[in-house]
Amino acid sequence: MSLRKLKSWEDAGLIDAATSARIRDWEATHARPLALRATVAIAVLAIGLGLISVVAANWEAMPGVVRLAIHFALIGACAVAAQRWCSDALLFVLGLLGLTFFGHLGQVYQTSSPLHVPIGLWLLLFAPLLLVRGSGWLIALLFFIGLAAFGMTFGLSFTENDPRLDPTLVAARISGAFAMPVLVAGLAAWARERSQRSGLWHALACLALAYAAGLASAATIASAVVDAPSSTEDWFTAAAVTAGMLLTAAVVVRVSARDGPGRLQALVLAGLAAATLAAWVLRGHQTVAALLFMVLWAGIAGASLRAGWRTVFQLAVALIALRLVVLSFELASDLLTSGTGLIVAGLLVLAVVWSALRIAKRFAPPRLGAADGRSA
């Protein structure tokens, strides 16, 4: 520990002289030479890189079964280590090894299948372990990305089917598959009341809400360009199915978590569903679509103020400011064709950015409020 920092703490009255002396004595007794630790780390890194280089140089020469056996042995060793030490890092590596194993299997045996098939099999085999043993953001992110990738690839697989299929049915299937991950918000709300690992379920709830906000935002952006009569029915189907999934998640969250944060989450999800339907009703108008986007994120900013989500509030203000700048250029595209227009555009951008920064600093919840908003 820095002696200068200890001295500054002592001068500020945070610690007394006796405590400062005890800290210095303890640090001197338990200190480890930095040069020795760096040397050991370099040696271990060199050994690891050497092993990787040897395997990589002879990878193609190895029989496919041997390569799969090595890969499977790594999965088994990582699984044993994860069970013994219960580390999120080990679980994360285990999940990645399991995911790449399916690709390796297809490479060795020259098999092919839709991408959602191996991802779905990976979820079936590894998701229970991740959800039962995981405890933090790393595992939540791995699981949610896998689930979102499965939903997207499964939804896009319908576009490769017989073109004679009903377009409305295809639109319903695609939008339902894309919106499926928002249901994790309901699962997280239900499990948070019954599990000791609240950090994992809090992270999953945040990811589900962020994904839901992304879906609703995409709907408002798309509504600016979707006005053709031939696409109206498909667009309504997609909006209705997405809104239905968001409302389902809102109901499950509201029933599962009856506290204040649970009610707020359900309200946010219901608002996102309403925004998705409003995007269909108000489609075909560029300015209206931009205003709907800003209203959507203004609502999210209001919920952030109530819950104490400082980062979410600042992100919402930034997105509103960015959309306002883009809208101004959309409405007056000729600003960039002259010197005066460039000056006006620059001043406008500076004014919007300055206002956004002032709002974000003036009204953002305190930093400690973000910790209180864990149930976000």
Describe the protein's architecture and organization:
The chain is an all-alpha fold and 376 residues long. Among the domains are: 137-284, no CATH class; 293-376, no CATH class. Helices cover 80% and strands 0% of the residues. The chain starts with a helix and ends with a helix.
The backbone outline, from C-alpha atoms, is: globular
End-to-end gap: 36 Å
Q: Mean pLDDT, nearest integer?
A: 80
Say how many strands there are. 0
* Total helical elements: 16
Order of helices and strands: HHHHHHHHHHHHHHHH
Please identify the structural class as seen in this structure: mainly alpha
Helix content percent band: over 70%
Question: What's this model, at a glance?
Answer:
By secondary structure, this protein is mainly α. The chain is built from 16 helices and no strands. The chain starts with a helix and ends with a helix.
Write the layout of secondary structure elements.
Blueprint: H1 3-11, H2 17-30, H3 34-57, H4 64-85, H5 88-109, H6 116-133, H7 137-156, H8 167-179, H9 184-192, H10 198-222, H11 229-256, H12 260-281, H13 286-307, H14 310-331, H15 339-363, H16 367-372
Helix pairs in contact: 4-5, 5-6, 6-7, 7-8, 7-10, 8-11, 9-10, 9-11, 10-12, 10-13, 11-12, 12-13, 13-14, 14-15
